[in-house]
Design brief:
Elements lengths: L34 H14 L3 H4 L3 H6 L1 E4 L2 E4 L7 H13 L2 H9 L26 E2 L2 E2 L1 H20 L12 E5 L6 H10 L3 H6 L4 E5 L4 H8 L7 E6 L6 H19 L5 H8 E5 L2 H7 L6 E3 L13 H11 L1 H20 L6 H15 L4 E6 L7 H13 L17 E3 L11 H6 L5 E6 L15 H18 L3 H6 L7 H4 L7 E6 L4 H22 L10 H20 L11 H13 L32
This protein binds 6-O-phosphono-beta-D-fructofuranose.
Length: about 625
């Protein structure tokens, strides 16, 4: 491995920063004006002369671009980088005070300045004996109090000691939540569903998620569930999220109506069939859920970083048992310790953050394709989409100064090999999209057919290895001509190559490695935010749409109950006014003079089920 010399970082404060007149005297120089940033900008020209097909022949370079940590193997030799690039990026990390910022995060400082909060999702998976102080108080006892409560409750439910209102044991769990209260838990559930041990633990049980406020999602989540054996977990950090609360009221109505028809009181039905996860225990109790059946967490856990709080641990423990989730927490903690303590040159999340910064800021690549060659990780790209894009899609620095560069990247992805038959055309011959291949050494399912050349998982992984090389080395027109390809086809069949990717291999997919993977990517996003000097922990960009929806909701309710159209006095622009009216026209069969419960008959078998809306023609 190459030796990393520590380059001293000068302390540069303003005058130069005032060049464009927009910065205050005395403020620290923005990272984009630092000599380290400029050195990287200069370095781009050098790297642009190089092609990965040549770089990849260098054994020493390859060795210097492989890192391992506790079973995780990261090869970034297919990045458009040299050893000098990495050194320059490490200098940038130092200039950005990455270490100091990481220490501040782990120490519980209020680094989320716009919300005046600490950022301590790492404390959620710290061992019982750890000590993590927030505002002078050790938070670890509280973390473990909730974990112990989850263990006790999930054991009771799984053993049948906790029953539904009719005395039948609970078999199904419906987790209602959106964003961070859905994507992470759904990713982990999908990852563990076919792990042999987890599968055995979950035998006979169903875990479903209800996120979208689309009533079709309600129908899907409740399809063929017997409310007598169903437990609903309402998950919302704030307990005010419109979609989640409407879904929670909808499912509460489903539960209470169905169970009332079987002779049970609504209050008893809610007490035995609804629990909550939230930081807002007052709102939980106002909703009608007994605070005894609520599992708390804290404002220092961001929604998208909350999988290892009760948000994920409660529904997943109900499905797989607490011990499995404890393994998951241990995996995440292992990576947290690595992130906190490993020197940057061999720190996996820091290196991944630096690579992303290089690709997006200096090479101008605006997206990241997350490509798990592993069906169990199918929902990982969607989870990462929120973690990365909600965290890093920012327009100003932590101080509120406009950024002179674009922060954040567009994350997307699908499992391989499905993606190969879909969007890979573009990443091979269209735009340059830095790719992150994620593969596993062992599969959760072993299939090897007699007579086949390789096992099914080998076949999957052959593609994992091949795709990264196809992107990197490409195929030149000379090669094609030599192969006798007719001239007309040569430009169509040429692959420019030199397209960057990193490859990450996990030993397998189990609770521990899923914890490692989750924490690896969380840490990488946090580190990238620190390097860019932005707040990776707030999300003001989601607010405006919510406010406008509130106004539309008011107009919609009025229009639907009084049968009036939207007019200019309502204040919408002509496009919105016309669209809403077009929608209302289409709905005019469904005038609701007063609000009432309307469920399709297959959801609620009430007596009046068919009559009032059988004629509705939607
Ligand atoms: O609207 C964005 C957001 O605030 C996310 O950050 C969060 O994960 C999601 O909504 C759900 O929020 P809650 O858990 O409070 O319902």
């Amino acid at each position: 491995m190459a030796k990393w010399s520590k380059v001293p970082v000068m302390d540069v404060t303003t005058p130069a920063a005032n060049m464009n007149g927009s910065l205050n005297m005395g403020k620290k120089l923005p990272i984009a004006y630092s000599p380290e940033w400029m050195a990287l900008q200069e370095h781009v020209k050098e790297v642009q002369q190089l092609h990965l097909k040549d770089l990849l022949l260098d054994e020493e370079r390859t060795d210097s671009m492989i890192r391992e940590h506790n079973g995780l193997y990261l090869d970034f030799s297919r990045q458009n980088m040299t050893d000098s690039t990495l050194q320059l990026l490490l200098n940038l990390a130092e200039r950005s005070k990455l270490k100091t910022k990481m220490n501040a995060m782990f120490a519980g400082d209020h680094i989320n300045a716009t919300e005046d909060r600490a950022v301590l999702h790492t404390a959620l998976r710290a061992p019982r004996e750890a000590r993590v102080m927030v505002d002078g108080e050790d938070v670890i006892p509280g973390v473990w109090e909730v974990l112990d409560k989850i263990k006790e409750f999930s054991d009771k439910v799984r053993s049948g000691e906790w029953t539904g209102v009719s005395g039948k044991p609970i078999k199904n769990v419906v987790a209602i939540g959106i964003g961070g209260s859905y994507l992470g838990p759904a990713f982990v559930h999908t990852a563990l569903q076919f792990d042999e041990k987890c599968k055995a633990e979950a035998a006979g049980r169903k875990l479903r998620f209800l996120a979208n406020v689309d009533p079709v999602d309600v129908a899907k989540a409740l399809h063929e569930l017997d409310p007598e054996v169903t437990l609903v977990v309402v998950i919302s950090k704030t307990f005010t999220t419109t979609e989640t609360m409407l879904n929670a009221r909808t499912v509460r109505t489903w539960l209470t109506t169905e169970l009332a028809q079987r002779g049970y009181k609504a209050k008893d039905a809610v007490a035995k069939h609804m629990v909550a996860v939230s930081t807002n225990l007052e709102a939980v109790s106002e909703f009608g859920i007994d605070p005894e059946n609520a599992f708390g967490f804290w404002d220092w856990v961001g929604g998208r970083y909350s999988v290892t709080s009760a948000v994920g641990i409660l529904p997943l423990s109900l499905q797989y048992g607490f011990d499995k989730m404890n393994d998951f927490l241990r995996g995440a903690h292992d990576l947290d310790v690595h992130f906190r303590d490993a020197p940057f040159e061999c720190n996996l999340p820091v290196i991944m953050a630096l690579i992303s910064t290089w690709n997006s800021t200096f090479l101008g690549r605006s997206s990241v394709a997350v490509l798990p060659y592993c069906q169990a990780l199918a929902k990982f790209p969607a989870h990462m989409q929120q973690v990365a894009m909600e965290s890093l899609g920012k327009q100003v620095s932590l101080d509120g100064d406009p950024l002179s560069f674009k922060a954040g990247e567009i994350y997307f992805g699908e499992p391989g090999t499905n993606g190969q038959h879909s969007f890979y055309q573009l990443i091979h011959q269209g735009r340059v999209v830095p790719a992150e291949f994620i593969g596993t050494i062992k599969s959760q399912q072993s299939v090897y057919l007699r007579g086949e050349e390789v096992s099914n998982h080998d076949e999957l992984m052959c593609n994992f290895f091949a795709q990264a090389d196809a992107l990197a080395t490409g195929k030149s027109s000379e090669e094609l001509r030599e192969e006798g390809v007719p001239p007309f086809y040569v430009p169509h069949k040429t692959f420019s190559g030199n397209r960057p990717s990193s490859s990450l291999m996990l030993p397998g997919v189990n609770p521990y490695t899923v914890g490692q993977l989750l924490a690896l990517y969380e840490a990488r996003v946090a580190a990238q935010g620190f390097i860019w000097g932005i707040n990776a922990f707030d999300q003001w960009g989601v607010e405006l749409g919510k406010v406008l929806a509130t106004r539309v909701r008011k107009s919609m309710s009025e229009a639907r109950t009084t049968n009036r159209k939207i007019d200019v006095t309502d204040g919408y622009n002509p496009s919105t006014r016309k669209m809403i009216n077009r929608y209302l026209n289409g709905k005019n069969q469904q005038l609701y003079p007063e609000p009432r419960d309307v469920f399709p008959c297959d959801l609620i078998h009430s007596e009046g089920c068919t009559a009032p809306y059988e004629d509705d023609d939607e």
